[in-house]
User: Fold these one by one.
Assistant:
Number 1:
Amino acid sequence: MTHEEYRAAWRWVIGLADSGEVPLFLDLFFESTVERLTFDGRPGSAGSVEGPYHLPDAPELTGRPFVLPMRADEPGTPMLVRGQVIDTAGVAHPGVEVDMWQAGNDGTYSGFVGDAPRSNLRGRMRTDEHGQFAVRTIRPAAYQIPRSGPTGEFLGMIGQHAWRPAHFHFILTSAGHQPLTTQLYFRGGDWLDETLPGGGDVAGAVKDSLIIDIGRDNDPDTIAAFGFDGPYETADHTFILSPAVPTPTV
Ligand code: DHB
Ligand code: FE
C-alpha cells in the first residue's frame, strides 16, 4: 500500500464515523456472519440480523386486531400479518412480546430517513391465549442502502448493488426462551436470489425458511373485522422459540 492509498482509506474511515453510518456498515458486512456463527443449529425457527434500524421504544399496541402505527394516507398494499408462536415441543405460548418494525412503501425506516413519525410502522404486541397475533399493516418495499454516504461509496467501489429484499423485522421475547430476532421475506420478491445477475441481498441475511408466500383475502367479513378498506394481502408464519440456555453455576 502506498502512503497515498493509506491516506485515502484513513479519510474514508473518518468520513464513515462522521456520517453516522458505522452501525449500517458493520451490520451490512458482518452481522449475518455473526448471526449464523451464533445461532446456526439452534433448535426452533431461523433467526436473522437485527440490522441498524430497530428502535427499542416502539409503542405497545392494544386492542385486537393490532394495527401497526401508520399515517392516515400511508402508501402501500394493505397486508395482514398473522403469527403463531410455539416452542420446540409444539406448545403455543401466550403473552410473548412481539416487537415488529418495517420499512414503508418507499423502503425507508421511520426515525432514520424521511418525515414519517418516529414510531411509524413500529410496534410491540403480545400473543393471545393461543400464542397468536394478527396485525394490520402495509407490505414493505425493498430497501436500498443510501447511495450518497460512505457505505454507498464503498459498495460502488466493490461493484456491489445496494439492495435488500423487502422484509419485516421481529424480536420475540418470552420468559424461559431465547429471544428470537428474525425477518420475513416474500417469495418472488426482488433481490432474494443469489444466482441471478446482480445477486441477492446486499446484507446476505436471507434464509430459505424465512421466505413466505403472500396470500390474498377478499372476504367482506374479514375485511370488515380487520378494518381494511378492501381486499388485502396476508402473510403467515410460525415462530418456534428455543429453550433458554441454563446459566452456568460456578
Ligand atoms: C441492514 C439490515 C436491514 O434490515 C436493513 O433494513 C438495512 C440494512 C444491514 O444489515 O445492514
Ligand atoms: Fe431492515
Number 2:
Amino acid sequence: MIKLIKNGEIYAPEFLGEKDILVVDGRIGAISDNISMDEIEDYVEVFDATGLTIVPGLIDGHVHITGGGGEGSFKTRTPELLLSDCLIGGITTVVGVIGTDGTTRTMTNLLAKAKALTEEGITCYCKSGNYHVPVKTLTGSVESDILLINEIIGAGEIAIADHRSSQPTKEEIARIASEARIGGILSGKGGVVTIHVGNGRSKLSLLEDVIDTTDLPIKQFLPTHINRNHELLKAGINYAKRGGLVDLTTSSVAGEENELSSSKCLSTMLKEGVPIEQIMFTSDGQGSLPRFDERGELVGLEVGKVVSLFHEIRLAYKREGISLEEVLKVATSNPADILKLPQKGRVSVEKDADLLFLNKKKFEIEGVMAKGKWMIKNKEILKRGTFE
Ligand code: ZN
C-alpha cells in the first residue's frame, strides 16, 4: 500500500517545513518538497519478473532453530540454524522447536534465537515445550506462554511412541492440549500442539485415545514425522480421514532407510482421498536424524536440512505430477491457516511481502523477498546472518 501525503507542515520533531510524505507498506518511504505522481517512480525500484513464477515464501513449521539432538552424547548436539539456510531454501517464516534435549536446550534460548532470526529479516515463531512432560515452559504454563509471549504460538513437540519420550499418559497429553487451546483462544493464536510420533508400536493410538475420550477437537494436534515408515503412514491416513492434521517431515529420508519421501507420501495421501488442506510439510531442520538398531543403540547421526522442504515440494510437483497450486499449499496457505499466521502464506493484498521467485523452466530459486526486502536477488544472497 503506497500513500502520498501532500503539503503538510512537518515537525520531525525538528522543523522540516512543508513537505510531502510517501507512506509505503505502513512505513515512511520518503520525505521531499514535492513528490508528484510522476516523481513517485524515483522512489520505486522496478523489478522485471518476466520468466519467473512468484509464489508465497515458504513457511517451515518445525525447525530446531537452536540445534537439537545430542542422542550420541554432547558432541552430537546439532548446531543452530543460520539465516542463509532458510533463504537458500526459500523459507521466510520459521517455527522453532526444542526436541529431545529439554535440559541444555532451553525456552529462553529458543525465544532469543527466534527474536534473532526475526531481527535478521525473516519471521520466526516458536513453540512451548520439548519432547517431555511435564512441559518446561517459560512463564510457568503452556497457556500463559502462548497468551503472553508474542513469538510462542503453540506447544510441542511432545513425543509419543518413542523410546526417547517421557512415556506420557493420555491425561498428560490432554492437559497440555487444553492449556494450548485456551492460550490460543485467548490470544488469537493457533495453540496447536505438535506431537512427535516415533517408531513405537503404539503409533497414533495414544492421540486417538485423547480425541475419543475428551472434548478436544482433533485439529488441536499436529502429529509429525508421519512418513517415518509404511505402518505409520497408514495410521496417519486413517487419522486424517477422521479429520486430523498430518505433518510430513521432508528431511527424514536421510535418517532412516525405510522412511518415505514426503513428496511420495503426499501423492499417496491425495490418492487415498485425504484433503490437502489437512497436510503440511515441515523440514525438521537442524534436528538430529539418529539411526538406532533394534536394541535401541545409536548407529548413525545426521543433521536435517531446511532446504529439504523446497526439494520435496519440487519433487512433488516435478516427479509426482501434483499441480503447483496444490503442492504449494503444504508449506504456504496450510501452515498459515493451521498455525493461524494471517499475515503469511499467501500472495495477497495486505499480507506480508514474503515472496519466492522461481525460474519457470527449471523451477529453481532465483529470488527471495522477506517482508518487502530482497534477501536473494538473481540468485545472489544479499543478506546473511550476523555471524555468517
Ligand atoms: Zn521430532
